[in-house]
Amino acid sequence: MTVKQNRSRSLPGLLMAALGRAVSAVPSALPFVAAAAVMTGCGGRLPPNTVKSPEDVAGRVIGALDGTACAALASQYGDVRRFGDEESMMEALRQGGLDCVVTDASSVSGKLTRVKPLRDPLAEYSFSFVVAKENGDLKAAINSALDSLRSSGELARIENGYLEESGAAYSPPAGAENPRATLRASVRAEFAPYVYLDENGRPSGIDIDIARAVGGLLGVDIEFTADDPDELVTKVRHGKTDIAFGGLCETEADSELVDFTSPYATTILDIYVRG
């Protein structure tokens, strides 16, 4: 008896053969096929991690939430892709569309799957108010107010109110005196949760409430204006505004032009990878 060989082919085999013919016919498709294989992951597995330490972040494709401090700060390290929500950002990381995600405590839900933080953070930043060098008295007054707010726990209460989304915000204490003067403040707007524009287009956030608390202790009102972040130091230096803040960190170069107060807030940038 003659046994006939079964020459039928499985559906995956037919698809792979068709794909091979298509690639042969159009050589330029090969990079896209390879990219799709990486994005999907072999056998449902996660693509391998390309970032294993903070040193690996330089030049990589980084995910961050749009309009946040993390997106602004991470742009110093690599190609930042901005997302409107955490889940789509983390899914892009899981699928291999990102090398890593940079975030902080204010934008991580804690309910994450198949991603993990690296042990070491990317960086730590401390934020300060900026004043003109000739305004030494103003700098000293702000530093004194910050010391009082720090020792009373008000700085921590304001920051935690935003990070924990408890809705806590600064309100002047009962019996506070009417402001005797007005300070002009230039701020960086897209730097949530520290500074951002609320639904009415007004500056809001941790930094704004801290500035209001400082103004309350100094007996002054503060008039906020959202400005180009690249112009903040210049505006203070040339007397176009009294103070500036919103992600401003003391650097050697800027310290030659303006003065920085003591830090009022600190953020740590964590790195998330597949895992």
Description:
The protein has 275 residues and is of the alpha/beta class. It has nine helices and 13 strands. Strands 1, 2, 3, 4, 5 and 13 form a six-stranded mixed β-sheet that branches. Strands 10-7-11-6-12 form a five-stranded mixed β-sheet. Mean pLDDT is 84; it is low at 1-43.
Describe this structure in a few short sentences.
By secondary structure, the protein is of the alpha/beta class. Helices cover 33% and strands 21% of the residues.
CATH class of the largest domain: Alpha Beta
Percent of residues in β-strands = 15-25%
CATH superfamily of the largest domain: Periplasmic binding protein-like II
Q: What's the helix count? A: 9
- The total domain count is 2
Q: Which features does this protein show?
A:
alpha/beta; D-Maltodextrin-Binding Protein, domain 2; 33% helix; 5-stranded mixed β-sheet; 6-stranded mixed β-sheet; elongated; 9 helices; 275 residues; disordered N terminus
Secondary structure elements and pairings:
Layout: H1 11-25, H2 30-40, E1 61-65, H3 69-74, E2 79-83, H4 86-94, E3 100-103, E4 115-117, E5 123-127, E6 130-131, H5 136-152, H6 154-163, E7 181-188, E8 196-197, E9 203-204, H7 206-218, E10 220-227, H8 232-237, E11 243-245, H9 252-255, E12 259-260, E13 265-274
Parallel strand pairs: 1-2, 1-3, 7-10, 7-11
Antiparallel strand pairs: 3-13, 4-13, 5-13, 6-11, 6-12, 8-9
